[in-house]
């Protein structure tokens, strides 16, 4: 199963909107075939492994990280292919959260006389590998991660000169692994104007589709000569309001920018509607990299599912340095936004990251 999980990891970033799945076929205690899914290739991991094994698959065992599918989609059901190939035993890490499958694949295999076992020790790493897919299948919404780089006192920016970085180059490289694993990334227009940022995936790794860059911009202040607009490749969406001038919309659209009107309260854009729109486009994961106001607005709207905060051994102090989440905040300690399942990650010397899920 460890080999199957390693196979699945090879597809990370290359399978969206499908899950990353790995499979190995074992005969007489030896691995005779292995495979992983890549969206462009269409073939699921089990089929890749079966084709590699050929006739030797008959009577062999299959180790796979996700329940074999039982329905017709872009391909025929993998469960049927396993039955036809003569696989005698299937060991799986987790049940498919897709309601179209959800145990039906196991049932089909068992009805054909194939022994099916769940390797419970592998369930957690298998779920982690596809947490975006699992979340999307269970909720119908993309997994939203709020990412930030902070000082030890929770500051993300100084009141004056903000040249340089809070965290190290090593931490910034790690951020690129999060971007690579995400379908979309969101920021506010204030951050874009301040930094003229690109918000691209700079991991250097191949992707199944471009990282969709999303800018929240109520009045369409995004300058058409900014770098992210000049380099647009069907990968930039601006979320705006009906109050935005039509002329600005026409200019951005002529540059290849997709403009979506999603009105929210107080003349702002709607974060919940933005997440629902991303879901309608089959984006299963969204990372937020924004400023203090947008961070708080996202948290307060309830769209955030988890955080990934990078901490550097620094303190800015003062009342004017920006906190990770500004806005009105909560007025009482008992009303604080709470987290669960907290994990610490060693990132670099004197740097660490906190990953945690919001209690909802």
Brief description of this entry?
The protein has helices at residues 2-9, 45-53, 78-85, 104-111, 123-129, 131-139, 169-180, 189-195, 227-230, 246-254, 271-280, 292-301, and strands at 22-27, 30-36, 61-64, 89-92, 115-118, 143-151, 155-157, 184-188, 212-216, 236-240, 258-261, 285-288, 306-312, 322-323, 339-348, 351-358. It has 360 residues and is α/β, with parallel strands linked by helices.
Main-sheet strand order equals 11-10-9-8-12-6-13-16-15
Largest sheet: 9 strands, mixed
Q: How much beta, percentage-wise?
A: 15-25%
Q: What sequence of helices (H) and strands (E) makes up the elements?
A: HEEHEHEHEHHEEHEHEHEHEHEHEEEE
- What count of helical segments does DSSP give? 12
Number of strands: 16
Could you outline the blueprint of secondary structure elements for this entry?
Elements: H1 2-9, E1 22-27, E2 30-36, H2 45-53, E3 61-64, H3 78-85, E4 89-92, H4 104-111, E5 115-118, H5 123-129, H6 131-139, E6 143-151, E7 155-157, H7 169-180, E8 184-188, H8 189-195, E9 212-216, H9 227-230, E10 236-240, H10 246-254, E11 258-261, H11 271-280, E12 285-288, H12 292-301, E13 306-312, E14 322-323, E15 339-348, E16 351-358
Parallel strand pairs: 3-4, 4-5, 6-12, 6-13, 8-9, 8-12, 9-10, 10-11
Antiparallel strand pairs: 1-2, 1-3, 7-14, 13-16, 15-16
Helix pairs in contact: 3-4
Question: Mind explaining what this structure looks like?
Answer:
With 360 residues, the chain is of the alpha/beta class. The chain is built from 12 helices and 16 strands. The strands form 3 sheets. A 9-stranded mixed sheet has the order 11-10-9-8-12-6-13-16-15, sandwiched between helices. The protein has a 5-stranded mixed sheet with strand order 2-1-3-4-5. Strands 7-14 form a two-stranded antiparallel ribbon. Strand 9 (212-216), helix 9 and strand 10 form a beta-alpha-beta unit. Helix 3 (78-85) runs parallel beside helix 4 (104-111). The longest helix has 12 residues, at 169-180. The chain is elongated and about 70 Å long.
């Amino acid at each position: 199963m460890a080999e199957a999980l390693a196979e699945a990891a090879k597809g990370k970033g290359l399978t969206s909107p499908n899950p990353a799945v790995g499979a190995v076929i074992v005969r007489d205690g030896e691995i005779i075939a292995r495979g992983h899914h890549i969206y462009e290739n269409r073939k699921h991991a089990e089929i890749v492994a079966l084709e590699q094994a050929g006739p030797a698959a008959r009577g062999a065992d299959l180790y796979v990280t996700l329940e074999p599918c039982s329905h017709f989609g872009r391909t025929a059901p993998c469960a049927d292919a396993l039955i036809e190939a003569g696989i005698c035993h299937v060991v799986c890490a987790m049940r498919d959260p897709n309601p179209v499958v959800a145990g039906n694949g196991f049932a089909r295999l068992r009805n054909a006389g194939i022994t099916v076992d769940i390797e419970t020790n592998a369930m957690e790493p298998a779920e982690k590998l596809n947490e975006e897919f699992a979340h999307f299948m269970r909720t119908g919404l993309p997994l939203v991660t709020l990412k930030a780089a902070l000082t030890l006192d929770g500051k993300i920016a100084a009141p004056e000169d903000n040249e340089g970085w809070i965290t190290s180059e090593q931490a910034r490289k790690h951020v690129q692994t999060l971007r690579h694993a995400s379908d979309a990334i969101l920021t506010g227009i204030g951050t874009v104007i301040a930094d003229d940022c690109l918000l691209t995936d700079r991991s250097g790794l191949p992707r199944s589709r471009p990282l969709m860059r999303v800018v929240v911009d109520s009045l369409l202040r995004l300058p058409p000569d900014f770098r992210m607009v000049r380099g647009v490749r069907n990968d930039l969406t601006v979320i705006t309001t009906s109050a935005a001038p039509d002329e600005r919309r026409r200019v951005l659209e002529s540059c290849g920018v997709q403009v979506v009107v999603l009105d929210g309260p107080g003349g702002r854009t709607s974060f919940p509607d933005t997440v629902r729109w991303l879901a309608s486009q089959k984006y299963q994961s969204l990372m937020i990299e924004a400023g203090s106001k947008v961070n708080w607005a996202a948290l307060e709207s309830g769209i955030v599912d988890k955080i990934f905060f990078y901490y550097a051994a620094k303190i800015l102090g003062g009342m004017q340095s920006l906190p990770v989440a500004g806005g009105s905040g909560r007025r009482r300690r008992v009303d604080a936004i709470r987290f669960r399942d907290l994990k610490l990650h060693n990132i670099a010397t004197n740097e660490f990251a906190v990953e945690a899920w919001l209690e909802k």
